[in-house]
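JOB MANIFEST
job_type = single_chain_structure
chain_count = 1
residues = 344
[input]
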Amino acid sequence: MLPFISVVLPVRNEERYIDACVDSIFRQDYPVSQMEVIFVDGRSQDATVALLREQAKRHPQIRVLDNPHRTVPYAMNIGIRESRGEIIVRLDAHAEYPEDYVRLSVETLLTVDCDNAGGVFVTRGRGFMGEAIAEMLKTPLGVGNATYRLTEKDGYVDTVPFGCFRRELFDRIGGFDERLTRNQDNELNFRIRKNGGKIYLNHNIRVLYYCRDTLRGILKMGFQNGKWNVITMTLVPGSMGVRHFVPLAFVLSTLVLALLSLASGALLFGGLLALEWGAYLLLDAFYSYAIAKEKGLRFLPVELALYPLFHFSYGLGSLRGFLALPGFIKSERERKKPKGGDGA
């Protein structure tokens, strides 16, 4: 008999996506009688909770819990604590799931020597700008060597999106790190590996993930990701890969070479800057043209601008992360201080 599972989803202000997400969950070929679906809401200010209440009338397996802290790691820990399943399937409301997603995830976890089983992102966008952003995020220039976005192979990896876990894993190594507004999946997978565990990617497990569909949205996401990469690296050394800091190196080298060139007037620094940007713009043109050739020439100018804007917002976010570190570390020290004074 298939195990009883708990599907846990953090949600906040997802009214545009929630119905399609719920519908895809209840189209799964995993027996509905063997699952519960827990939505942990971070005090949404739109119609997310109302829509979930309506869905719960049709699907009694749905439970809606409150997350007063609003962020994803708190939501996951609340959902795991309140769950009844022996297996936890972590999903995201900003996505839709093929009918075999849950079954393949559970089967992979139970048949492969691993502690977390996951699959690959199939990135989708809504509207012209959303589609352009999605195409950018499908390329190596857009996402570096993120295996879960680019691979067509199975195997052990450093991280996977979302994931499928035995419940006892969280009893053994702890839950999601509640200090991290972002990168909590990276940190958890790092902790799994640090404790001798394995993460397995099955490329047949597919997530239809909807990316940001406005320029402002993708630049904000890049900035916040860059910022939290630095904070996560500081709090949990080793949890972030080199690729997460390539935009920071790009922005820093651009700024430093430009300043040195202006300050010294030396051709060397200006030449190095020209070489760096020449190589970058060639890559930008190559991938932008490849997208435009497939999707239409109207994508070409948008893609040409998207790559540098996204990378610069990401790198500037990392710089902001360094500036935020002293205050963040101070607040962490305050949080860890024993309460109640010295009892005198």
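[summary]
The beta strands are 5-11, 35-41, 62-66, 87-90, 95-96, 116-124, 155-157, 164-166, 199-210.
The longest helix spans residues 299-336.
exit_status = 0
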